[in-house]
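Still learning. Show one?

>
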Amino acid sequence: MTDVLRIELVDDHEIVRQGLRTMIEAEDDLTIVGEAGTVEEAIRRVGFDSPEIVLMDVRLPDGSGVEACREIRARWPEINVLMLTSFADDEALFASIMAGASGYVLKQIKGSDLLESIRKVGRGESLLDPEMTDRVFRRIRGEELEDPLLAKLSAQERKILEYIAEGLTNRQIAEEMFLAEKTVKNYVSNVLSKLEMSRRSEAAAYAARIQAEKEHRYPPERWPS
């Protein structure tokens, strides 16, 4: 008989939990011992259900899964936490590692790969890619890591991006920078092109995330919609 790995599901979407439960419990060596949809509930349920692994969504309605991970690892260091997220976000990765997570996977992962990731974490293995981990420790050492998209922008284009993030129109930006409105329009087009984006709202959300990373805030005050 193979030992059955006990798993707690934490996600605020019931339909996601149902899908994960169905997939996981189809495996002979895995079982779901409990579910939660908030940070508060996750901590309470983990203490009651005694899982070996917590499959944790990064975004929860009353806080972040990272906060829950940190608390769970502090109270029950023998429990491993596998973070699950919809966004490939260096800041979330950084926060997850610092909170003691054993791994970080995207929700777009194939079902078979997720199951194997759960088993690896259950065996005490880390799923953190060495390159990702290196980025985190460079952050800890204070080495500045510039976003590759941001590196494409000139100083003037970065200033334009800041104004876009503040919600200014082309005319307002032109007034602030003492430029012709047509010149600003060209700058905005260049910025969007270099960032590989099609809408100002995308650029504004991107700029907000970059600012949050610089200030070491997690989660950002505004999430991309």
